[in-house]
Amino acid sequence: MAILEVRNLRVRYATAGPEILRGIDFSVDADDFCAVIGPSGAGKSTLIRCINRLVEPSAGEIILFGEDVRALAGRELRRLRRGIGMIFQEFNLVDRMSVMDNVLSGRLGYTGSLRGLLRLFPRADIDRALHILDRVGLSDHIEKRADELSGGQRQRVGIARALMQEPRLLLLDEPTSALDPKISRDVMGLVKGLAREYRVPALCNMHDVQLALEFCNRVIGLQDGFKKLDGPVETIRKADLDEIYAMEVL
Amino acid sequence: MTVLARSRTDVVLDARRRRRIGRVGIYAGVAAILAWCLQSTILADTEWSRLGGGLGVLAGVQRFLWLDFSLVPHLLVPAVETFMMATLGTLLGCVLSLPVAWFGALNVTPSRFIAYPIGRFMMVVSRSVHEIIWALLFVGAVGLGALPGVLAVAMRSVGFISKITAEAIENIDPKPVEAIRAVGGNHFQVMYYGIVPQILPVILGTIIFEWDINIRRSAVMGLVGAGGLGLVFFRQMAQFNYGGVTMVILAILALIAVGEVVSHYARKAVT
Lengths: 250, 271
What we know:
The structure holds two protein chains of two kinds.
Chain A: E1 2-12, E2 19-29, E3 33-37, H1 44-51, E4 59-64, E5 67-68, H2 74-82, E6 84-87, H3 99-104, H4 113-117, H5 123-135, H6 151-164, E7 169-173, H7 181-197, E8 202-206, H8 209-215, E9 218-223, E10 226-232, H9 238-246
Parallel strand pairs in A: 3-8, 3-9, 6-7, 7-8
Antiparallel strand pairs in A: 1-2, 1-4, 4-5, 9-10
Helix pairs in contact in A: 5-6, 6-7
Chain B: H1 2-43, H2 48-51, H3 53-62, H4 76-104, H5 115-128, H6 131-142, H7 146-170, H8 174-182, H9 187-221, H10 229-238, H11 242-270
Helix pairs in contact in B: 4-5, 4-7, 4-9, 4-10, 5-7, 6-7, 7-9, 8-9, 9-10, 9-11, 10-11
């Protein structure tokens, strides 16, 4: 069953500018951990940001959980966003806040402004945060400031924040590009395990083809704004991958 | 297991509650100090009977609203003079800032024990004396007119420009400097090739910002007899021509708006 359906998605940032995405179609199933691969500038980040409307598509259709994403605005759009956990390449933590506050900020979509101002989160949120922090292996760092942590630990905070949202979909934007190879594998393994445990489908941008083949069950390949590849990992041939990345060897 | 998790939640909740109480305490303290300031400086220190009620205040304000357009032709020359005072003062300030910044930057200063303290001291002196005081000093020294205004603006600019410059020099990336040394460059070449290109955007941005501020400063120089729009302002005030005062204020506003636009584009161009 497809939970996300994208049809003929097109994006251009400036009215006269070049088209970044040129008619992308794909769907994501409820048990997918789907990789989006492609060279720099292929439109991976733009694609993933269209799903939660951080980027405004210029044409096409995005149906998420049976809802037309492009039709939403204001409160409705925020309700959609709080159900989509996003994990970023540079972690996007608030450095000056504690690990706990960063993780709890994942609940802001469910929290009123006044409660947010006083950092007054319900007991259930604290419970959930402690549980998730255990799961990502950060229970010893709860009160540390986010900038005291190493890269891998920081990304674990990012993962915990995304899971706090009780997400129905995870969007990962190059989650391991800022990490070294060993830590990258750890982090991918962790996300994969958690996604399975919480039964959340994921859409994951990656640069590293090897990691994609290793951790994802499906691969979508982008090149220069077009979809060049789409299928289960088992069916992906090396020649196809080489073709996608051929442009990068410049 | 659940019992353990519960108690951990309680620990976190307690810590958060304590911190929240601390934060609220700080807010309350700030509010109390603010209230005390309001009470002692405004509420207790104003002669409310002399205000003559809301109508009296309005009557005082409305005098300024009858614009005196006959003044317009007499504003152009002082406006240009103000503009030039700001520009010349900033340029002179830049020149004066060079040695001060050189002395006051730890990594390039000629001597840490003599030149460095001198440089730092000059920065402080320049900034701790108000521009009007500088203007008073120079009016006394060189007489009335725009010249004391230019000198005052320049003196006042040195502190900021040289401080930012010195800090930029101290924060440069040492690697290019090492490279220029390694190719056999002399002291001047090291500075010119290794340091100046690195700090140039910061310096130019600062100078433009300072020029922007100096337009404001030049506009009040006339209050102590150093020319420009301030002099017209002073005369209108002395004649109790409140409409004229407003005209001068509007002229200053227009001048500053022009400066704002120019500096916006200039800053864009240098970064």
